[in-house]
Specification:
The chain is of the alpha/beta class. It folds into three domains: 86 residues, Rossmann fold (3-Layer(aba) Sandwich); 201 residues, Mur-like, catalytic domain (UDP-N-acetylmuramoyl-L-alanine:D-glutamate ligase, 3-Layer(aba) Sandwich), CATH 3.40.1190.10; 135 residues, Protein-Tyrosine Phosphatase, Chain A (Alpha-Beta Complex). The chain contains 15 helices and 20 strands. The strands form four sheets. The protein has a six-stranded parallel sheet with strand order 7-8-6-9-10-11. α5 crosses α9, α9 runs antiparallel to α10 and α14 runs parallel beside α15. It is globular and about 75 Å long.
Length: 445
């Protein structure tokens, strides 16, 4: 019997994963990539045809099935030509969905997570909860491992982070529960309009048995009135925040207090919502509440994203180096001072990329501790944030903060700027911050 021919558009991590899966399934694979030296070329199996250069619609329509990488828009002329000629264009997540329906995998449960912000945190947090509960779990998709590489008959639970790009080419997932954590303007260069982006995100609900929405964000609400739903949010939700008479905030389910937010390693009110979402998702697929709550007391967050670094003498140190724009810093700081007993001290700075630092002022009114700025745009920040102090670099900022902090305070590096003026990337900046805390605060060599 002749092998069926399949085209894969785009190499890289996802493309290579797709190629290897298709080869194992017995397909004859051709790869198309516009780049002269596509990543992963050296790892391609012999016998795989690699065609470089601009996509040709007439050539693509020779394939009845085309697997497109998330970075390639369906609106690409050559891809549209192939679709109009009768080719089926899907992505690796759709391949995963179809494989999950086969007898060897039907026993597994699946959770799908999307959103403009926080999806990586919720995905990884839920994965840690599953591990704590003793569940054989696989976590990936848009984060970490490509979905097709996760497939294994022994796995009992798949947790997938999905981007809007991946959802464009996915239609037959049957997740046990799906969530849209939040929606804000993003990737508008890819979509016809903001509404188009929202509609793409919403397709995740159409491929699930149960939908979890954010009561704080109407754009995440479920349009299908017949769809079973669950909700999370600060108020007006099944999983919500309750404040006691003595001003203690709790993660709660209905009238039941689950965990005081002071027991979370994660910082910031936005992470309260992330924790609630993870609890709702986990309970829907049978994870024990006690195991999930235990995870929340130890989970320190994704690296460089409101990452808990250390607590010493009652002072918390937080690395949010990935906050390379004003919006990310706003999210990290909003309501932060209300959930600690002391003051928040903030470190800003780097390359502002032309940002208007006036947009930071509403959240900065909550900062009662010191504000320090360094780097290429330090003077521009100081011109707007008049009570900020300009310092030469990160070590100087930390040295000055050490002289001021008291028990109950929190110190956060949330720069609102890119790092390239002084560091190779935001990871290097965050790593430097952590080394400095380790040496200057904890006294380790």
């Amino acid at each position: 019997m002749q092998q069926e021919k399949v085209a894969v558009l785009g190499l890289g991590l996802t493309g290579l994963s797709t190629v290897n899966f298709l080869l194992a399934e017995g397909y004859l694979v051709s790869v198309f990539d516009t780049r002269e030296a596509p990543p992963g070329e050296d790892k391609l199996a012999s016998g795989v045809c690699l065609i470089k250069g601009a996509f040709c619609g007439k050539r693509l329509c020779e394939f009845s099935l085309i697997i497109s990488s998330p970075g390639i828009a369906l609106a690409t002329d050559a891809v549209q030509f192939a679709i109009e000629s009768g080719s089926e264009v899907i992505g690796d997540i759709e391949l995963f969905a179809r494989k999950l329906k086969t007898p060897a995998y039907q026993h597994a449960k699946c959770v799908t997570i999307t959103g403009s912000n926080g999806k990586s945190t919720v995905t990884s947090l839920l994965g840690e909860m599953a591990v704590e509960a003793g569940c054989k779990v696989a976590v990936g998709g848009n984060i970490g491992v490509p979905a097709l590489d996760l497939l294994c008959p022994d796995i009992k639970l798949y947790i997938l982070e999905l981007s809007s790009f991946q959802l464009e080419t996915t239609r037959s997932l049957n997740a046990d529960i799906a969530t849209i954590l939040n929606i804000s303007e993003d990737h508008l260069d890819r979509y016809h309009s903001y509404q188009h982006y929202i509609e793409t995100k919403q397709t995740i609900y159409q491929q699930a048995k149960l939908a979890l929405f954010n009561s704080e964000d109407s754009l995440t609400f479920v349009a299908d009135k017949n769809m079973p739903t669950q909700s999370f949010g600060f108020t007006d939700a099944r999983y919500h925040i309750q404040k006691t008479a003595n001003n203690v905030y709790y993660l709660s389910k209905g009238k039941q207090h689950l965990l005081a937010v002071t027991q979370l390693k994660l910082s910031g009110k936005h992470n309260w919502l992330n924790a609630l979402a993870a609890l709702a998702l986990g309970e829907a697929v049978g994870l024990k509440m006690a195991s999930m709550l235990n995870t929340l007391t130890t989970y320190s967050g994704l690296e460089h994203r409101c990452e808990f670094v250390a607590e010493s003498a009652g002072i918390r140190w937080i690395n949010d180096s990935k906050a390379t724009n004003i919006g990310a810093t706003q999210a990290a700081l909003r309501g932060l001072s209300a959930i600690i007993s002391g003051d928040v001290h903030l470190i800003l700075g780097g390359e502002g990329k032309g940002a208007d630092f006036n947009e930071l002022l509403p959240v900065l009114t909550e900062i009662k501790g010191g504000i320090y700025c360094f780097g290429a745009d330090a003077a521009n920040i100081k011109a707007v944030v008049v009570n900020a102090k300009v310092v030469d670099d990160l070590p100087m900022a930390i040295a000055e903060i050490i002289e001021q902090v008291n028990e109950g305070d929190l110190v956060i590096l949330s720069p609102a700027c890119a790092s390239l003026d002084m560091y190779p990337n935001f990871m290097a900046r965050g790593d430097h911050f952590k080394r400095l805390i380790n040496r200057l605060v904890l006294g380790n060599d």
